[in-house]
Amino acid sequence: MSAIDAHPPPDPAFRFDAFLHPHRSLSIAGFRLLMAVLIVISLIIGGVFLAAGAWPIFGFYGLDILIIYLALRKNYKNALIYEKVRLNDDILLVEKGDRHGVTESWTFQPYWLRVHVDDPDKHHARVRLTSHGTSVIVGAFLSPEERLEFAAALRRALSEVRGPQPQEAGGL
Question: Is 67 exposed, middle or buried (0-12, 13-18, 19+ CB in 10 A)?
Answer without folding.
Answer: exposed
